[in-house]
Specification:
alpha/beta, TIM Barrel, eight-stranded parallel β-barrel, 19% strand
Amino acid sequence: MRSSRSAADPLDPGPAGFAHRGLHGPGVPENSLAAFRAALDLGAGIECDVRLSADGGVMVFHDPDLGRMCGAGLDLEGSDSALLAGQALAGTGETIPRLSELLELVEGRVPLLIELKSRAGNAERLASAVGAGLRGYEGPVGVMSFDPEVGGAFKHHAPRLRRGLVISDRASALKRWRSMAIASPDFLAIDFAAVLCRWVGKARTTRQVYCWTIRTSAQRETAAVHADALIWERDGRPRT
């Protein structure tokens, strides 16, 4: 039996859910335009990560450095956007996209979930840059972060932009309470390991709850009951 749902979701991705870092796999790197095209072909919403380059560019990339995805000894926040945009992803012809490229590709066809990866002291600058990048974008989009200061910045500078708080199962009740107070989120993105917790069900009565990262069919079946939308990859792919 499905648990109680909150009100209608402006970011509802439908049964295809949100493809985590795009629909990636062999030969298709995460957070690449190829992965985002594949998600669009499936009709799935897109979840992605962004970081701020040294010159203030918003780059679609998960890690703080380029070692894992590009084999390069570069710190993303310490490098200029032009240099970053030329870096090949996982030995393919794909390169690190700018947020503007992702927005141009999607054009509002599916909902976007943009996770902001902040670094100490740059929450305000990062939120400001992403907010500026989204100005004029007409498709359904939500911004979210583990860092409640990011949500707080959007609350003051872009209050109409739908904002979320990402919560790990390791977060204490006190940390959750403090983070919620600062971020004032419209939705939550919850670690699958916490999805059965009582506080998640209670939160779901007042706001949407998304669940990450769904990687197996068993996780998919559980999360489909206790969350409003799934953020998935690999065998967590919904049956549509």
